[in-house]
Design goal:
219 residues; alpha+beta; 4 helices; 10 strands; 18% helix
């Protein structure tokens, strides 16, 4: 069985066996991750996630609030999603692409009229309070700055051999003339334990080379 070398919080390395999934030759369509949803209390959101205070992180599987004081990032992937514009006469998803450069010219030429093109970064993360299954955290629009900051922090740790870090996942209120909303905020909280790093590497081996499923992407 292949081994993966990873950095530990103390600067050394450990070997972790690559694990296999229950379904042989699994593709992205064979995995389903609960979403860690940042509740905004807009539209029919409470019908999907229950009633919560604004800015609370909610487990989409249980609709219960989640303690996000300690999380470990696993892997993140970019997606560009094309939606039918609300005034186009059509509804829903038009296409999903790895990057904006992959979007067909016909969609780009009609962006804002027939279609809406939205960039996402989807993060898989371990929540220490609920470690049995990783969560999917989606970032778009103003939330992209948060995941880019996290990416910078993790790159800095990697450059000095410190491995994955621990972060407190909070919510931060933003506002403009259109209203108020919340975005993610990642606050450094020290080093992850070797057990948590081992778990992060196991999940990274599952999803690092596979597309994160895009079902039920929020508009």
């Amino acid at each position: 069985m292949a081994k993966t070398e990873i950095a530990t919080s103390g600067g050394g390395t450990m070997s972790v066996a690559n694990t296999s999934s229950l379904i042989q030759d699994s593709g992205s369509e064979d995995f389903s991750l609960p979403e860690l949803h940042l509740f905004q209390d807009v539209g029919n959101e409470s019908d999907t996630y229950g009633d919560h205070d604004k800015g609370v992180w909610v487990n989409s599987l249980t609709n219960e609030p989640v303690d996000t004081s300690e999380i470990i990032p696993v892997v993140a992937q970019k997606q560009t999603v094309v939606w039918h514009h609300r005034d186009s006469g059509n509804k829903g998803l038009a296409g999903v692409y790895m990057t904006r450069a992959d979007v067909p010219d016909a969609y780009i030429e009609s962006n804002g009229s027939q279609y809406d093109i939205v960039d996402y970064v989807n993060l898989i993360a371990i929540v220490v309070s609920e470690p049995d299954l990783p969560f999917l955290i989606r970032h778009k629009s103003s939330a992209l700055s948060a995941i880019r900051t996290l990416n910078t922090l993790e790159m800095g740790r990697s450059n000095i051999g410190r491995g994955r870090g621990m972060y407190a996942l909070k919510s931060k209120q933003k506002s403009n003339d259109q209203g108020k909303w919340f975005i993610p905020q990642y606050v450094p909280a020290g080093d992850a334990s070797e057990e948590m790093i081992r778990m992060a590497v196991t999940f990274a081996s599952m999803f690092g080379e596979r597309s994160i499923p895009h079902e039920e992407i929020p508009i």
